[in-house]
Structure formats: structure tokens, C-alpha cells
Write a structure and sequence with these properties.
Blueprint (H helix, E strand, L loop, with lengths): L1 E6 L3 H16 L3 E6 L11 H7 L6 E5 L7 H9 L3 E6 L7 H5 L5 E5 L2 H10 L7 E3 L21 E6 L5 H11 L4 H16 L5 H11 L6 H9 L2 H21 L4 E4 L14 E5 L4 H9 L1 E6 L10 H8 L3 E4 L3 H6 L7 E2 L8 H10 L1 H18 L2 H12 L27 E7 L3 H17 L2 E7 L4 H10 L3 E3 L6 H10 L5 E6 L2 E3 L3 H8 L8 E9 L7 E11 L5 E3 L5 E3 L5 E10 L8 H21 L4 H13 L3 H15 L7 H16 L3 H12 L6 H18 L2 H20 L1 H6 L7 H5 L2 H15 L3 H11 L5 H4 L3 H10 L4 H9 L6 H13 L3 H12 L7 H11 L4 H4 L4 H14 L5 H14 L3 H16 L6 H22 L2 H5 L8 H17 L3 H14 L4 H14 L9 H19 L3 H14 L4 H19 L1
Parallel strand pairs: 1-2, 1-3, 3-4, 4-5, 5-6, 7-8, 7-10, 8-9, 10-11, 11-12, 13-14, 13-16, 14-15, 18-22
Antiparallel strand pairs: 16-19, 17-22, 18-19, 20-21
Helix pairs in contact: 1-16, 6-10, 7-8, 7-10, 17-18, 21-22, 22-23, 22-24, 23-24, 24-25, 24-26, 25-26, 26-27, 26-30, 27-30, 30-31, 31-34, 34-35, 35-36, 36-37, 37-39, 39-41, 40-41, 41-42, 42-44, 42-46, 44-45, 45-46, 45-47, 46-47, 46-48, 47-48, 48-49
Length: 1096
């Protein structure tokens, strides 16, 4: 066979070509390598010599990334000779749209990621008729090359690859799109989606982004958007490389970085971070790999594929430590021939790396097993064979004794059924129609089947069911839900299985459709959707619960338990959908008798089964669950103990025993006896039969019990046990995946990590002894980059700092020692710099926070700017008026009354000079509102504040509204605050004119417009009453009416337990209505409430 290949300006591709050339020639084929970089005619790879080679039929042309089909002359040559072109894409196909649209007639495309194959089939199915998956391969070292003894290797951890700052790549994209800010914003959101969820591939991220922006685009436009997202791809790659290196560098590992750009990394100057060289030829990197104990790999762009770095590492007798892809997880086995880490949980990475470095025997055994596997399956010799098989019309496959064919991709015509939907149907016609209608998109858009297990008797029900599926299984009801479900399961033919009831229906299945159509389902074993349980027929009140009702079908999949049936096994990883089903099945089950009837029915089934299966721990567990749900906790405890005793008779502990171990102390705590629950939990924690996932979840429970019981020393010890167990499970991922105790899983325990650590901080501060080191350790454990878990804890972290002022320096010092870029941590570093009076550091940290903090953290940043004389310009530029309003209101509440004038004098000029006069007016208003609601103001002070307030409100309105609109003061468009200000200003003018009676109706209207300023209005009303100079006489009828209205406001304040404000309003009312007995009685109630608050 005559084969043409190509040199280009990509040095690594040229190395690959040399490897293939050697393999083809060793098999007796004639080859020619054309150097496309235009060498002289004297070169053995010149164009002239290629023309000579092409004068005779060329059977096969092989290239990488479309290099041999980019020029018309080459395409014409291939078409003239009917040459088969094998194009191997080493990068995402979105970079090569022109090649995919135009190429030679006999064109065969291979991608190194199965998602890339799906992408080409989805968007270029008409242009590219043949596309398949082909994994990267590795280089076999020379037989003469000695293997460096593991203990003598120079590098602990080596990473080979380039680095660019992610923001630089995004800046390049923004420059290209400088005339399209809308598209810039789209790609920025796409980047944020990819960095927030590392499980997304580029296609999924763009589709998600379009959905978030509510944009519908044509397929042609979608192709263009994909093509322009190359810089996003690069930025995400660099972002993940940056994170991984940062985590390991901060953990103190000796890191060696081989490649360009690492001098720009934030950790480049660390003493434990070593740059070997800017750039060396691809082939020479192999020697460096061979001299490393661990070769680090980061390949976020490959979700269902691979990178040659993994294979080269193993072939050089080193160990790859890599992030995951579904293909790599199918081919390799974590802990046996490869080491995986998870980009979603980088806080576990140091523990994984440390375990490998501390266990050389384990690492060497993994290397040997991986080496043997890759040497057999994934070398350039294998790649040459695959290409030759393709040229000969044969299919090729990558196989290993541990796996089936793992490169296999199926043509659409041979796809198996993707999804089986199993529906249990009785005769609930009221909901069945909705249920079936909600499944139509799944049946229409996926290769799916619907199986109905029919337990009813109505011809109408059967007729409706038959409209949707021919697959109806009659089932005679036997009080066993598991049997009924298994009837449908036994007939299922899908790769995945989903089940629900006929009184449930999906609101929207788009997310599930995307899960399958995008190929995301390959990354998961199971999935949860939400069951929305309504408690009223109006659908207003409900409770959401995740239900595990979707799984990949395995030979051992089955339903267990006659009631509360569930499906087993239910392995991780699990996908959590936001998709939900409506469920009104619990509506009406509100009173005790109805709940008791349901529990009695379930318990009757269980008792009946227990008579025939008295040794079933499962049944005792279900009975305990039933008694617990009906509030009979003592009986539930009794059944739980019996079930636990039975479960402990098995040779090995299992997930059921673990669930019972966790349920027992929980049930005891429900009785109110938390001390006994803690004692029981401690006893169980010491049990050798408690699985590690159970230990993790039980530690969470014990931490919470210690929190309630103020057992600080014990609590801190349980926090440490929690962390120890968590690190163990990170290193033993197989246990984390398999130990699932119904509701208690590794995920459920790990989810509580931040809450546990924060409670640990309180425990450490309470104990005081050794608090500094404990605080530093706990703070280092918190995953600061995990926004979803850390953000709910900011308020608790602030409370921790407030509660222990004596430890303020130790707390801030602990934050200062962290390497995280989290804005909350950065803010604490700024506070610490303030303590140390390091002005430059304060400003540096402040700037970092000002650029990316959430709105609810603006207040402390503004306060810091005022204290230190910083310009707010960098902060103001990213705020909306609503953002500033929230901030200004908070500033007013946090500033002490005596300090308000000084604070405003420092802040207001900067707002106006920076071009934000409206912000300045809003700040003034919130500060004046705070002062006006204090009560007991001297009349002159009250009048001055009200006048200043009205002037500010009116001035702000003039910045927003046209004069003709403002002149129509009662227009519905104008805000109530403006209408209030106009009336108060008019009243003040009448007051100056001594038209006291004319003020009263204006004050009445103002009171309704702005009730939050009722104290100020009441104070002004009292002053007016005094000005009438008739104190001995009863108040005028107008004042009586106004007093009644103020009294209504007073009742509202009391209902909301705003006692201080109520006291001020009551004082004004006594002056207004001195003989009103109700006012006097209300005063006593207010005083009593205030006294109670002080006692507490």
C-alpha cells in the first residue's frame, strides 16, 4: 500500500508522523512524508518529490487535524486517485469546521473523544459520512532504555504542558468580538458555566448558555457560535491547569513544570515550584516523564476521551495522576492501574497525591499493571494497525481483558433503546392523562419505550393507556409494590430505566432530553429528579424531595421491599435534575386519622411479612420508618434496635445495617433526649461494623448534637473524626461509591463538610486552649472555591468573628494564611492588614474584593474604603441603583448615630465627583430615614431632618423623571417616597406660614404613603398640636382622626414585635391623645415586652 503523510509547523504532529512512518514501513508499505512548510527542492520531503510520488496512485493519506485536506490541490489529488483520507483530530472538532464542510470524497474522520464523534454526527452528518472514535496512543521506549528505579527519580510530580492566563485568552476573544458586546457576554457566561461545572463539555455548555439567555438560534448560527468558542476552550483548559497546580503548590508538594508560560502562574515564585524549561521537542519530554514518580494530567476538554500524556506516562514506567473522563474510567481502574482525581473536588487532590508518594510499592504495582495494559492496546503500532484495518474496509476495536470494546461508537441505525419508562397504573383517570402527556417528548425525541404495569379494571383506563404504548402488562394487585415494579423492570430493554406513578406528571422534561441527547448520560450510573408533593389542591403549598428513580440497567437491577420500594443497586455517580413531577397524592392526608390509616395499612403489610420472615432486618427497618413517620418514636426505636440486632448477625456489615446505625440515634433525638442520642451515637461510632460512609454521616450527626448540647470539646473531636474519615474515603473512592445506606451516602455526608467545619470553628473558640492551631487547620479544610456550599455559611462565619472578639487577631491571622482567592477570605485578609496598619496591602486586597464580590458584601467594602480613604470608582462601576440601595440601607443600619455626619462627609464627595450623584442622594435618604425613626427628636432637629430628607428625595426624582411628570404629583408612575416628600415639604411651608390646620390633611396623606416614617410624622403632629396653644382642651377632631390612624400604625409595629419603634410612636400618641385609655394600656404592654427582651 502506498501511503502519504505530512509534516507541518506543529512539532508534536511531526513526531507522530515519524512513529506511524516507522510502523507502516515495518509492515512493508511504501510511504512518503510531504513537508508542507515549503522546504527547498533538495529536501527529501519537498513538494517536487511529493508530485513525483503522486504520479502513481496513492492508496492512503493520513494526517492530523485536517492538514491534508485544507488545500484544493491536495483534495483534487485524493479525488483523482480515489485515495482514502484518514484524518485524526487531536483537538475538538469545533476548530475544524471548514475541513468538516469541505474535504475529499473518500474521507474518514477519527476523533479522540466520543463526545466529539457525537458532535460531528449531530452538526455535520450530511458532510461527514464516516466518523468514529480512535483513542490517543503512546510511545514505547527503546528496549535499551533503562528504567530508572522509582526511589531514585528526580521529580516527585511532573506536569508537561503550556500555561496561559485564562483572562488573556478571554481578552483575545473580546478583542475579536469588540463590536459585538452581546456575543462577548454570551461567551463569558459560557466560560462561567464551564468553570462552575467541570462535567460539562463545550457543546453542553454553549447549549446551556443559550437556554439561560432564552435564545433560540438556527443550526447555522449554532455552528458559528461553536467555532468562535475555541478561546473559551483554551481559557477553561488553562483555568483548570491553574487550579490543579495551585492546589498542589499550596499543599507543599515539589512540583516540576515543563512548558511555556508557567512564569505567569501565581505560584511560580514558590520555593517548591520548579520550572524546567520553556519548551523542548515533544520526543524529549518522554525522558523527563520517565524520571518522575507521578506525571500529572489535566484534560478538561476530554469528557469521554483521552490524551496521549496518560499512555506516554505509563509506557515510561511512571504513574499518571489525572482528572476523569468516562472513556478513561471504562478502560482503567482507579487505584489499580491509574490514579484519578476529580476537578469538582480538588480539595481531595493533595491527600491522593500524598498517599501515592508515601506508598511506593502501591504506586509501582499500579505502574506495572498500567504499563502492561497500554503496551498491549495503545501504542503507535496499534494505531497503525487501526488505520490499515480502516483502509482495508475492516472495523477495528480497542480491547482489554477487563473491558468490552471501549472505542465502540454505534451508528444511529444500530442504536439500542436508550430509555425504558415504566409506569404503574391503577384507575386514576383524573391524573393518568396528564402523566402520559408529560412523557410524550421522551417517547418522541429519544429511542425509548413505555411499559405500563396495569393493576386496574376500568376499560377507559386501558383504552387511554393503549393509545401510548402496545406494551401493557396486566398485574393482579398483591399488596407488594416491589413485585409490581419488577414486572415492568423484567420487560425493560433500555440502557436506562425511569419509573413513576400514574398520579405524577412531569412539568418539563427538557433537562432529561438534553441528558440523553448530549451524551451526558455516559458519565453517570443513576439520576434523581424532584417529586413535588403538594399539601393543598390549589398547588400553592408543597415540599420538594429528590427521588432516585433513574438508573442504568444492570443484570442485577431489581426492586426490593413491598412498601417504600426502592431499586437496587443504585451506584454513583448520580446526576441530580431540577426537573420535577407534580404529585398530589398526599393532599387531604392532613389529619391524624388519615395518616394513621395509611400507616396502619403499611404496617399491616409489614407485620404480615414479619410473621413469615421474622429474621428480616429489612422489614424491621421499614417498620421503624413507618412508626417514625407517624410520630411513634419509642416504638420506632424498638423496631430499629431489633433490626440492628438482626443485621449484625451477618458476616459483613452492609448498607442496611449502616442505615439502622444512623437511624437509631436520630430517632432517640426526636424524642427530645439529645444527651441519650449522643451517648448512643458515640457507642455506634466505636463499632467495628460501622462502614466508613456511615462513620462520616454519624460524625455529622454527633457534631450537631454537641452543638445543641454545648459539648464543645467532644464536638471538636467529632469534627476531626469527620475529616479523617472524609480523607480516607477520598483515597478509597471504591468504598465511597459502594457504601450507600438508603438516604445516607458518601455524597450526603460530604455535602455537610462546610457546616461541620464552621461548627468546629465555634467549638475551637469556646475551648480556647490550642484554638489558634485548630482555627488554622479548620479554615484550611474549608473548600473556599465551592460557591454553592460556602456562600450559605458567610453569615455564620461573620457571627463567629463577632462572638469571640478576644480571638479576633487569631481568626484574621488564620484567614491571612490561606491561599484561596475567595473574595470572603480576601476581605478578611484586608481586615488583618488593617489590624497591622499595612496600607498598601489593605488596598491591594480591597481592590481584589471590589472587582468580584456579591452585592451583600458591598457594605463592608464601602466601610473599609471610608476608613482608609479609598476611591470607590472601581466598585461603583459594576453596581446597579438597586445594588447601591441595598448597600446604602445596610450602611445606615450599621453606622452609629453619632458617627453618621462624619461618615457621610467622607463618602458623599467621592460619590458626586465620580459621577454618581443619584447614589449620593440615596445614601443621604437612608441615613436620614434612620435618624427620623429614632423618635423623641427636638422639634427644630425634626424639622431640619425632614426638610433635608424631602429635598434629597425630590432632587433624586428630578434626576430620573421629566418635569412634566413630576408636576403631576399623583401620577401612578411616581414612587410613593416622592409623593410623601412633596406633601411633607408643603406641610413645612404651611407651618412656616402658621397655617397649622392646613398641615393636618397633608400629614394624614403622608402617613399612608410612607408608614415607615410614622414616628417622624407623629413627632411633627405633636409639634403642631403644641403650636395650637390649647393644651388643656381635648385635641381637635382632625387630630383625633390623625391619632386614630397613628394608632393603627402602632398596632402594626407591635404585631411585628418592633418594640423600640412602638415605644417612640406611643410617646407621641400620649401627647396627641392624653386621655385615651387604650393608648395608656398599650404603653404598658410595650414596656412589658421591652423588659422581657432585656431579661432574655
Amino acid at each position: 500500500m502506498r501511503i502519504a503523510m505530512f509534516y507541518t509547523d506543529i512539532e508534536s504532529f511531526n513526531f507522530f508522523v515519524d512513529q506511524l512512518d516507522h510502523e507502516f514501513r515495518s509492515k512493508g508499505h511504501e510511504t512518503f512524508i510531504f513537508d508542507m512548510t515549503a522546504p527547498s527542492d533538495e529536501s527529501p520531503h519537498s513538494y517536487a518529490r511529493f508530485i513525483d510520488f503522486a504520479s502513481t496512485k496513492i492508496d492512503l493519506a493520513v494526517c492530523f487535524d485536517g492538514m491534508c485536506v485544507r488545500q484544493d490541490v491536495l483534495i483534487e489529488t485524493w479525488d483523482a486517485w480515489e485515495t482514502l483520507v484518514v484524518d485524526i483530530l487531536m483537538d475538538p472538532p469545533l476548530r475544524f469546521h471548514p475541513t468538516l464542510l469541505r474535504h475529499s470524497k473518500h474521507y474518514r474522520l477519527f476523533c479522540c473523544d466520543r463526545d466529539h464523534v457525537d458532535y460531528v454526527r449531530r452538526y455535520f452528518s450530511k458532510e461527514v459520512l464516516h466518523v468514529d472514535f480512535m483513542p490517543h496512543v503512546g510511545v514505547v521506549p527503546s528496549p535499551d532504555a533503562p528504567v530508572i528505579p522509582y526511589a531514585e527519580r528526580k521529580y516527585d510530580i511532573l506536569f508537561c504542558g503550556t500555561y496561559y492566563r485564562p483572562q488573556d485568552r478571554l481578552a483575545m476573544l473580546n478583542e475579536r468580538l469588540k463590536d459585538r458586546p452581546d456575543i462577548q457576554e454570551l461567551y463569558q457566561l459560557m466560560y462561567q458555566n464551564l468553570t462552575a461545572d467541570s462535567t460539562l463539555n463545550l457543546e453542553q455548555a454553549l447549549l446551556l448558555t443559550l437556554k439561560q439567555k432564552n435564545l433560540a438560534v438556527s443550526e447555522d448560527t449554532l455552528r458559528v457560535l461553536f467555532a468562535y468558542s475555541e478561546d473559551v476552550d483554551w481559557a477553561v483548559r488553562m483555568y483548570q491547569r491553574e487550579r490543579v497546580i495551585t492546589v498542589l503548590a499550596n499543599a507543599g508538594f515539589d512540583l516540576y513544570l515543563l512548558g511555556r508560560g508557567w512564569e505567569n502562574h501565581s505560584c511560580a515564585q514558590y520555593p517548591n515550584v520548579h520550572r524546567i524549561d520553556d519548551r523542548i521537542p515533544y520526543g524529549e519530554t518522554l525522558a523527563y516523564m520517565a524520571d518522575a514518580k507521578i506525571n500529572l494530567n489535566v484534560f478538561p476538554g476530554f469528557k469521554s476521551g483521552t490524551h496521549d500524556r496518560i499512555f506516554n506516562t505509563l509506557l515510561q514506567h511512571s504513574l499518571p495522576l489525572t482528572d476523569r473522563s468516562s472513556w478513561a474510567e471504562e478502560y482503567f481502574t482507579d487505584g489499580q492501574d491509574i490514579a484519578f482525581y476529580d476537578l469538582l473536588h480538588l480539595d481531595r487532590l493533595p491527600a491522593i497525591a500524598r498517599d501515592l508518594l508515601n506508598n511506593p510499592a502501591k504506586a509501582e504495582a499500579m505502574i506495572q499493571k498500567g504499563y502492561e495494559k497500554v503496551l498491549r492496546d495503545l501504542t503507535w503500532k496499534n494505531c497503525a494497525d487501526w488505520i490499515l484495518d480502516t483502509a482495508s474496509g475492516r472495523n477495528f476495536s480497542v480491547t482489554s481483558p477487563d473491558n468490552d470494546k471501549i472505542n465502540e461508537t454505534k451508528e444511529p441505525s444500530t442504536m439500542k433503546i436508550q430509555l425504558t419508562i415504566s409506569l404503574l397504573v391503577s384507575d386514576r383517570m383524573a391524573t393518568l392523562g396528564r402523566c402520559l402527556a408529560s412523557l410524550k417528548p421522551l417517547l418522541r425525541e429519544l429511542d425509548s419505550e413505555l411499559i405500563i404495569v396495569y393493576t386496574g379494571s376500568s376499560p377507559d383506563t386501558l383504552e387511554l393507556a393503549e393509545q401510548y404504548t402496545p406494551h401493557i402488562i396486566p398485574f393482579t394487585w398483591c399488596n407488594d409494590f416491589a413485585k409490581a415494579r419488577n414486572a415492568g423492570l423484567g420487560a425493560a430493554r433500555g440502557e436506562w430505566f425511569l419509573y413513576l406513578d400514574d398520579d405524577e406528571w412531569f412539568e418539563d422534561v427538557d433537562e432529561i432530553l438534553y441528558f440523553f441527547k448530549s451524551g451526558e448520560y455516559r458519565q453517570y450510573q443513576t439520576a434523581f429528579y424532584i417529586q413535588r408533593n403538594y399539601t393543598d389542591w390549589e398547588g400553592i403549598s408543597y415540599a420538594d424531595a429528590y427521588v432516585g428513580r433513574m438508573c442504568r440497567l444492570l443484570p442485577e437491577t431489581r426492586f426490593v421491599f413491598p412498601i417504600h420500594e426502592n431499586i437496587k443497586p443504585y451506584p454513583e455517580p448520580s446526576k441530580k435534575f431540577s426537573a420535577f413531577v407534580h404529585h398530589f397524592g398526599y393532599v387531604g392526608v392532613k389529619n391524624d386519622s388519615q395518616q394513621a390509616e395509611k400507616s396502619d395499612r403499611n404496617l399491616a403489610l409489614l407485620v404480615k411479612r414479619l410473621k413469615t420472615e421474622p429474621a428480616s432486618a429489612h422489614l424491621y427497618a421499614q417498620a421503624a420508618q413507618e412508626y417514625s413517620s407517624s410520630g411513634e418514636f419509642d416504638t420506632a426505636i424498638e423496631y430499629c434496635r431489633k433490626g440492628l440486632t438482626l443485621a449484625q448477625k451477618t458476616s459483613k456489615p452492609d448498607s442496611l445495617e449502616m442505615w439502622l446505625q444512623l437511624e437509631l440515634p436520630a430517632l432517640i433525638s426526636y424524642t427530645g433526649n439529645q444527651k441519650l442520642a449522643l451517648e448512643e451515637g458515640e457507642r455506634l461510632l466505636d463499632s467495628p461494623r460501622l462502614l466508613e460512609v456511615g462513620r462520616l454521616n454519624l460524625a455529622v450527626m454527633l457534631v450537631n448534637l454537641c452543638w445543641n448540647l454545648k459539648e464543645y470539646k467532644k464536638g471538636l473531636e467529632f469534627v476531626r473524626q469527620y475529616r479523617q474519615t472524609l480523607e480516607y474515603l477520598w483515597q478509597h473512592s471504591e468504598k465511597a461509591m459502594t457504601q450507600n445506606g438508603i438516604t445516607s451516602t458518601f455524597a450526603s455526608g460530604e455535602m455537610q463538610a462546610v457546616s461541620v467545619y464552621v461548627k468546629g470553628l465555634f467549638f475551637a473558640s469556646e475551648i480556647a486552649t490550642g484554638a489558634d492551631s485548630a482555627i488554622n487547620q479548620l479554615l484550611s479544610w474549608i473548600p473556599w472555591e465551592d460557591k454553592s456550599r460556602i456562600e450559605p455559611q458567610y453569615e455564620n462565619l461573620d457571627e463567629w468573628k463577632r462572638r469571640y472578639p478576644a480571638q479576633k487577631e487569631a481568626i484574621l491571622s488564620g484567614y491571612a494564611g490561606l491561599s484561596s482567592d475567595n473574595f470572603y477570605v480576601t476581605l478578611q485578609k484586608a481586615y488583618y492588614a488593617e489590624e497591622l496598619k499595612q496600607h498598601d496591602e489593605i488596598y491591594s486586597f480591597w481592590q481584589l474584593c471590589a472587582g468580584n464580590c456579591p452585592v451583600h458584601f458591598l457594605t463592608p467594602l464601602v466601610e473599609m474604603a471610608v476608613r482608609n480613604g479609598f476611591s470607590l470608582e472601581v466598585l461603583l462601576g459594576r453596581l446597579t441603583l438597586d445594588d447601591w440601595d441595598i448597600c446604602a440601607r445596610s450602611l445606615a443600619q450599621r453606622t452609629m448615630l453619632p458617627d453618621m455626619d462624619d461618615f457621610c462627609q467622607k463618602l458623599l464627595p467621592g460619590l458626586s465627583e465620580s459621577g454618581y450623584p443619584l447614589f449620593a442622594e440615596r445614601l443621604i435618604q437612608h441615613f436620614l430615614e434612620r435618624q427620623l425613626t429614632q423618635g423623641l427628636l427636638e422639634p427644630s432637629r425634626l424639622l431640619a431632618l425632614l426638610n433635608e430628607y424631602c429635598e434629597s428625595v425630590i432632587a433624586a426624582a428630578k434626576m430620573i423623571y421629566r418635569d412634566e411628570l413630576l408636576n403631576n404629583v399623583d401620577s401612578y408612575i411616581l414612587p410613593a417616597k416622592y409623593k410623601f416628600a412633596v406633601r411633607i415639604q408643603n406641610a413645612l411651608q404651611l407651618l412656616d406660614a402658621q397655617d397649622y390646620a392646613g398641615c393636618v390633611p397633608l400629614l394624614t396623606e403622608a402617613l399612608h404613603l410612607c408608614p415607615q416614617l410614622s414616628i417622624a410624622v407623629s413627632g411633627l403632629t405633636k409639634y403642631l398640636n403644641e403650636l395650637l396653644k390649647n393644651p388643656p382642651q381635648p385635641a381637635s377632631p382632625e387630630f383625633a382622626i390623625l391619632g386614630g390612624q397613628v394608632k393603627q400604625m402602632l398596632h402594626g409595629l407591635m404585631a411585628n414585635q418592633q418594640w423600640n419603634e412602638a415605644y417612640g410612636v406611643n410617646a407621641q400618641l400620649i401627647a396627641l391623645l392624653p386621655d385615651d385609655l387604650e393608648v395608656l394600656r398599650l404603653k404598658q404592654e410595650i414596656l412589658s415586652a421591652l423588659h422581657s427582651c432585656q431579661v432574655e
